[in-house]
């Protein structure tokens, strides 16, 4: 009778003791981890200086709005129409024109001095006046950079059309009616690429910062032999795992918020979302980024390899496959499915949406759902591989 | 002396290649990236086009059929209401939406110029702009055809008696893989070269074997050389794999000179190893070395001209990019590959690499000696 009475009570105290111990141990371990991190000056560099530096670089370096393209002009014919065309070309705000001979321009293309050139053929004026003959202008582009080649083609075509219009007007001819396009950019009326590049870059920066932090921490303990000491203590797997996640989460979310602040207040990218939504999305993104690093670190137990793996699994895929610069829907279908496995992909759309469009709840919660899945996946797998014994 | 360096190189290669996991990390990421990244392009392909047709005339239907067959658009979704339009754009279900006004066919038939509204997603305006370019091309071709059909010979007698002939040199079909693969030769190997040099010294420092090296008859210069050469061997083999895959798997025509390619690649790797040694000379743990490597590598990739043209950067930043070895080597790799540039043109891009390597290598050796003394 007495035993039966005592049992639930002792069980309760055990649970209480376990609960208290859990928090105490978790606190102690997290405190140790934070001290270890903050003692190393390079952590501050990674958490606060590197992200700000990178966001500035992204903000200034990645400008996809074509500004001015250097282009050559070869005038083999100096007739009045050719001159007029040259004027229309030089009037284009997108082109800076260098004149020269065909030979010079060919050399300039080789040396990357111009992105292409236009040749007005020597018989241009003559053919223009003679009915039944085509007066041709040649546009040569440097196809080794296809993107710029397309711009060169489009700008030349634009200048050519301006010239055609002026010519038709001067001669009193009527152009066939054309269909005018009136673009409307939602969320980003001036269509400035930096407005979505800078928010997107926060994803890349945080993928890297997250992976940098956690990819080394467990491997370091194994390498230095301190893991053995830790395993000799009553610490549980959950406590160990959480103590490796929480301090870096705090550091990560502060550096993420710092990035958002820099983007909004210094780089002047409009932020239209709400702070709570930003926190929810960022939290789950950070957990998946930190989880990935921790998984690699746990699996590899070797800082050198974990560092390489984190670099390869984190930075380059986030840069190339997250849809931040390169549109996912233009990729082959198989590759599109592969991008679904990347947490960065969901965070890119959600942070771009938060910055530019505001809280579009359906889109954001969909992304949160996928980010939750991937954090659960990475952290769960890490827990599965976290060993409590040395001999396995 | 050569024998000593030789033994150090052998030892270094053994450390790097001894365990299967380490070997895997030198080769697997390269292969993986080689499989995935060539398909990542700025072209706009198989996207979704939204159509909001408020016009009941025949011309809009005719045009929509033309859009549906364009390479840029695989799916065409029809949008009925403003609410549906909002949903489509907000949830990114279509790259752009064309709205035909109710008087579209009538205006066009009566010889006026109707306005077609294009709604683009500002979160990906660059892609949208490219797609809008395709739309404009289709519209222009359509207008010309109509003009020709209405008044036969009209275009022959009018201003259109000129033509603009466009030729894309070195890459006639503007195939993006021709641009990506030569650049990947430079980008992917950068990681290998930097990590191998900067982390391997930090690892020796952490494990205490660096002191053993110092008490051996090797001079600091020899130690640096012994660290540099294995990194060169490994990163140049990685580059060769990518080069071979580019030529034989992806069929990018290699029109240049292999000797020029490898010669300039050698100097590129030397300049990278210079950075790696410099980073490892100031770092005392692997973590610091890793962070240092990263703080160099990310800006180097962003400022290389691969993702965004250097011409678009502000002038002061363009000046900084001069000290980025990747910027120079990407141009060399691409231009030797496709343009077959001659020795002197290569030299113009290579000499900055010499300057960079000289600065970083001297810096690294000064700091090494300083920390030893």
Topology readout:
The complex is a heterodimer of chains A (392) and B (373).
Chain A: H1 2-39, H2 41-61, E1 69-75, H3 80-90, E2 95-99, H4 102-110, E3 116-120, H5 124-129, E4 135-142, H6 146-170, E5 180-186, H7 194-224, H8 226-231, H9 237-266, H10 275-300, H11 303-321, H12 333-339, H13 343-356, H14 361-385
Helix pairs in contact in A: 1-9, 2-7, 2-9, 3-6, 7-9, 7-10, 7-11, 7-13, 9-10, 10-11, 10-13, 10-14, 13-14
Chain B: H1 2-17, H2 20-36, E1 47-53, H3 58-68, E2 73-78, H4 82-90, E3 96-100, H5 104-109, E4 115-121, H6 125-150, H7 154-157, E5 162-169, H8 176-207, H9 209-215, H10 220-249, H11 258-282, H12 286-302, H13 315-321, H14 325-339, H15 343-372
Parallel strand pairs in B: 1-2, 1-3
Antiparallel strand pairs in B: 3-4
Helix pairs in contact in B: 1-10, 2-8, 2-10, 8-10, 8-11, 8-12, 8-14, 10-11, 11-12, 11-14, 11-15, 14-15
Alpha-beta classification of chain A: alpha/beta
Report the count of strand segments of chain A: 5
Query: Using DSSP, what is the number of strands of chain B?
Result: 5
Cα-atom radius of gyration of chain B: 28 Å
Q: Tell me, briefly, the overall form of chain B.
A: elongated
Distance between the termini of chain A: 44 Å
Shape of chain A: elongated
- The number of helical elements of chain A comes to 14
- Elements of chain B, N to C (H/E): HHEHEHEHEHHEHHHHHHHH
Number of helices of chain B: 15
Key terms for this structure?
heterodimer, A: 392 residues, alpha/beta, 14 helices, 5 strands, 8% strand, elongated, disordered N terminus, B: 373 residues, four-stranded mixed β-sheet, 15 helices, 68% helix
């Amino acid at each position: 009778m007495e035993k039966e009475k005592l049992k639930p009570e002792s069980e309760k105290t055990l649970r209480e003791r376990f609960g208290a111990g859990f928090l105490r141990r978790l606190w102690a371990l997290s405190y140790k981890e934070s001290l270890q991190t903050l003692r190393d000056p390079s952590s501050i560099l990674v958490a606060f200086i590197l992200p700000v530096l990178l966001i500035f670089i992204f903000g200034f370096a990645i400008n996809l709005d074509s500004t001015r393209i250097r282009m050559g002009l070869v005038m083999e014919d100096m007739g009045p129409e050719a001159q007029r065309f040259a004027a229309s070309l030089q009037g284009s705000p997108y082109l800076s024109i260098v004149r020269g001979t065909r030979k010079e321009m060919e050399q300039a293309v080789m040396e990357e001095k111009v992105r292409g050139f236009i040749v007005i053929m020597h018989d241009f004026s003559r053919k223009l006046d003679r009915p039944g003959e085509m007066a041709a202008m040649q546009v040569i582009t440097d196809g080794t950079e296809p993107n710029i080649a397309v711009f060169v083609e489009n700008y030349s075509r634009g200048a050519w059309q301006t010239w055609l219009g002026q010519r038709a007007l001067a001669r009193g001819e009527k152009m066939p009616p054309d269909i005018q396009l009136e673009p409307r950019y939602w969320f980003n009326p001036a269509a400035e690429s930096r407005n979505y590049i800078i928010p997107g870059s926060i994803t890349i920066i945080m993928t890297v910062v997250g992976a940098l932090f956690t990819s080394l921490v467990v491997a370091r303990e194994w390498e230095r032999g301190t893991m053995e000491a830790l395993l000799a203590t009553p610490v549980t797997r959950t406590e160990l795992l959480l103590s490796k996640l929480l301090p870096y989460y705090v550091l990560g979310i502060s550096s993420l918020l710092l990035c958002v602040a820099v983007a909004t207040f210094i780089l002047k990218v409009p932020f239209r979302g709400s702070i709570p939504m930003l926190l929810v999305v960022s939290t789950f993104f950070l957990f998946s980024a930190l989880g990935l690093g921790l998984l690699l670190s746990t699996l590899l137990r070797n800082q050198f390899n974990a560092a390489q793996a984190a670099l390869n699994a984190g930075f380059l895929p986030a840069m190339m496959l997250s849809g931040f610069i390169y549109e996912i829907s233009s990729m082959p279908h198989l590759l599109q499915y592969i991008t679904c496995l990347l947490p960065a992909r969901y965070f890119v759309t959600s942070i771009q949406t938060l910055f530019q469009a505001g809280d579009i709840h359906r889109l954001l919660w969909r992304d949160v759902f996928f980010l939750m899945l991937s954090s659960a996946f990475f952290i769960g797998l890490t827990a599965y591989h976290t060993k409590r014994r040395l001999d396995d | 002396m050569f024998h000593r360096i030789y033994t150090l190189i052998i030892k270094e290669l053994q450390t790097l290649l001894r365990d299967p996991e380490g070997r895997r990390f030198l080769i697997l990421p390269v292969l993986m990236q080689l499989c995935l990244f060539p398909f990542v392009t700025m072209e706009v392909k198989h996207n979704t086009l939204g159509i909001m047709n408020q016009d009941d005339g025949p011309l809009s239907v005719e045009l929509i059929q033309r859009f549906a067959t364009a390479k840029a658009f695989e799916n065409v979704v029809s949008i009925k209401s403003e609410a549906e339009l909002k949903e489509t754009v907000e949830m990114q279900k279509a790259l752009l939406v064309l709205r035909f006004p109710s008087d579209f066919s009538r205006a066009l038939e009566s010889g006026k110029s109707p306005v077609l509204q294009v709604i683009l997603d500002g979160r990906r305006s660059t892609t949208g702009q490219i797609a809008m370019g395709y739309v404009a091309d289709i519209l222009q071709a359509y207008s010309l055809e109509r003009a020709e059909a209405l008044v036969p010979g009209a275009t022959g007698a009018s201003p259109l008696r000129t033509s603009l002939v466009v030729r894309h040199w070195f890459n006639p079909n503007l195939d993006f893989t021709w641009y990506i693969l030569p650049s990947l030769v430079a980008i992917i190997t950068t990681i290998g070269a930097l990590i191998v040099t900067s982390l391997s010294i930090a690892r020796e420092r952490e494990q205490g074997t660096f002191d053993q090296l110092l008490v051996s008859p090797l001079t600091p210069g020899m130690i640096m050389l012994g660290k540099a050469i294995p990194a060169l061997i490994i990163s140049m083999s990685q580059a060769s794999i990518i080069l071979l895959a580019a030529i034989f798997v992806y069929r990018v025509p290699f029109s240049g000179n292999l000797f020029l390619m490898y010669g300039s690649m050698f100097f590129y790797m030397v300049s990278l190893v210079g950075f790696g040694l410099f980073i490892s000379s100031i770092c005392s743990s692997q973590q610091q070395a890793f962070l240092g490597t990263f703080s160099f590598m990310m800006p180097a990739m962003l400022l290389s001209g691969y993702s965004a043209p250097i011409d678009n950067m502000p002038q002061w930043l363009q000046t900084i990019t001069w000290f980025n070895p990747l910027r120079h080597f990407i141009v060399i790799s691409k231009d030797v590959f496709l343009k077959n540039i001659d020795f002197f043109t290569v030299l113009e891009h290579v000499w900055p690499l010499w300057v960079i390597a000289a600065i970083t290598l001297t810096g690294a050796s000064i700091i090494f000696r300083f920390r030893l003394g």
